[in-house]
Amino acid sequence: MSVVNQSFVQDVDAVLSAQWNVGTNTKADAAAGIATIGDDGDLRFLLTRVAVSGQGVLGSAAVDIPDGDYALRVDEVAFPVGAIAHRHTHTGSGWRHLVNGDLRIEAEHDTTVMHAGDSWFEPAGSPVRAVALQTSGVTRFVRCMVIPANFVGVSTFQLHDPADAALPRLQMTHRHFDHLVQVDAG
Length: 186
Known about the structure:
The chain is an all-beta fold. Helix content is 0%, strand content 52%. The chain has no helices and 15 strands. The chain has strands at 2-5, 14-22, 33-37, 43-48, 57-60, 70-80, 84-90, 93-100, 102-106, 111-115, 119-122, 128-132, 138-148, 157-159, 172-181. The strands form 3 sheets. It has a 5-stranded antiparallel sheet, with no helix packed on it. The chain is globular.
């Protein structure tokens, strides 16, 4: 799976492509853009059989595609000032792209501060904690994951420590779509 911007012009054989276009919303309570299946957006997520590289590629990594049916999910996560996504995992692997603000990502083996325009990959089942660093406005990222079909319409978010469920959860997730891909048995 790869995340690319508008300067990516290669002809690739994508299994599936999702696009996200910047909108006008700047508040945390609604999506900041519009996502659809397609390949002509401000930001694109390409599910390909081989890694892509070159101009416009913001990141590319191998993604485990579940056996049988699966879905491509595109959503946005908005962090108002003070928001923390406590250590958690997701059922699906995928790319994130920071649209606004600064976000500290505390992964299993390192900590990185992401700035608007940065992209990062999170493998399925890999614990991560995210802390919004801005003092005003909203920090927001767009995410595209490959998820098992049984998670269509269901959150993939799983707290790593159940005790964290008692902590405040200020971030808001805005799901654009789950696009089901049915695998032909023959």
